[in-house]
Amino acid sequence: MQPITPGLEKTAKAQPGAHLALGLLFAIGLVNYIDRVAMSVLQVPVKAELLLTDEQIGLLMGFAFFIPYTALSIPMARLADRSNRKAILIFALIIWSGMTFAVGLAGSFIFLLFLRVGVALGEACCLPTSYSLIADYYPKQKHGRAIAILGSTFPLGSMIGLVLSGHLGVELGWRGAFFAIGAVGLCLVPILMIGLKEPARTTDGAGQVATPKLVGALCDIWRRKAFRYCILGLGMQSIVSISILTWAAPFYSRSFDLDLGQVAMLVGFVMAGAGAVGTLGGGVLGDKIARHRPSRLMLFPAFAAIIATPVAMLQFLTGNLVVSIVAALVSSVFANIYLAPCNALIQRLALPGTRALSAAVGVTAAAILGGGLGPWGVGKLSDYLSGVTGSPADGLSYAIAIFMLAGVLSAYFFLLSARHMDRDSGFGEKEHKI
């Protein structure tokens, strides 16, 4: 069992080495998403050389990744709540980076499928373990900002991955690109072994960390209405943010005849960069807004989702490229504000022995709804609407716009979460005693 620091969360000081740990976790997070999106760009030469069908590519991009990713998130989070998180993270990094490197050796669909599953299994350990470490390194008052920095690895890693994979694919070929990307992650392993320290597991003053049984822990987590509605809102908003990032490239290619280089720059630098701004802003402003009243933490992403929904719909429905790009900037910022406040709330409400497990529940909701239902649903609806309209470009734009309405549901769930946040976090009881 790790050493305990009673009452540490009541102070406003981070544990020693917190900033170094955050930097290392940030680097790992970037590699996580770069490895994940590399196939999105390199699928064209992979498909051509290995003679794959669109259905096979779709399987590699979707179910082959998100089913094992989702299935393993909670068990790995449970292990992180009980074991050494540094060791888990190092092992996971070796697995997914090694599998990414090995993609460069693939000669068949079956081999690619196996490797894609391996990448998912390794990456399933990353976020729950990282969020659990951050929650113990930093006090509650600084969770939002630290989690926002870590959460920004999603848009930044996606941006770097989209641009870098395309460039490496041109210079080195798709096999060389996967070798290079996988090697970067493997080079981080010794740095992580030396630089990252396992922090003391913080408590709420009880003096020990109890790790409840899985079923009981899940029931306790779900019983908290603020947590429950936050998870539902997180899942709905993940549909918006991930669908935008998944389908923006083919949308701009079909609707405005942009070439691959222009699309990569637009989606990579403009949209993913704006998404990083939204993620960081959500954490920094969320901490300030909720400093004296925890419920305000969820009011912020609710407000952002209300703004993002119509602007995102405008982005995909307008026939003017300039208007679409401006709308893309705005929607990318506001559609990603939810990440840090949601994960900060999850850690605020989590018992010390269930931090990684609580984070995994959020990751699972985002993976199933955002990573699974969102991209697949948009594609399915796009095929149908393309047949109705006779235009693949119109079919895709209408499908994306319809799925942006998930933002309305996310705002509703965030408001419900805010309504119960003060009571579930103990704020109301403390104020009553005062």
Describe the structure.
- This protein is an all-alpha fold and 434 residues long.
- It is built from 18 helices and 2 strands.
- Strands 1-2 form a two-stranded parallel sheet.
- The longest helix is centred in the middle third of the chain and has 43 residues, at 153-195.
Mean pLDDT: 79
* CATH H-tier superfamily: MFS general substrate transporter like domains
Structural class: mainly alpha
CATH architecture: Up-down Bundle
Report the sheet-strand fraction. under 5%
Chain oligomer state? single chain
The total count of helices amounts to 18
The total beta strand count reads 2
Radius of gyration: 21 Å
CATH class: Mainly Alpha
Q: Count structural domains.
A: 1
CATH topological fold name: Growth Hormone, Chain: A
Helical amount: over 70%
Distance between the termini: 36 Å
Order of helices and strands: EHHHHHHHHEHHHHHHHHHH
What is the topology, as strand order, of the major beta sheet? 1-2
Features:
mainly alpha, disordered N terminus, Growth Hormone, Chain: A, 2 strands, 1% strand, 434 residues
Topology:
Blueprint (H helix, E strand, L loop, with lengths): L3 E2 L12 H33 L3 H8 L1 H20 L2 H19 L5 H15 L2 H12 L5 H9 L1 H43 L5 E2 L11 H10 L1 H32 L3 H30 L6 H22 L3 H15 L3 H11 L5 H35 L2 H12 L2 H19 L2 H7 L1
Parallel strand pairs: 1-2
Helix pairs in contact: 1-4, 1-5, 1-6, 1-7, 1-8, 2-5, 3-5, 3-15, 4-5, 4-6, 4-8, 6-7, 6-15, 7-11, 7-14, 8-11, 10-11, 10-12, 10-14, 10-15, 10-16, 10-17, 11-12, 11-13, 11-14, 12-13, 12-14, 12-16, 12-17, 14-15, 15-16
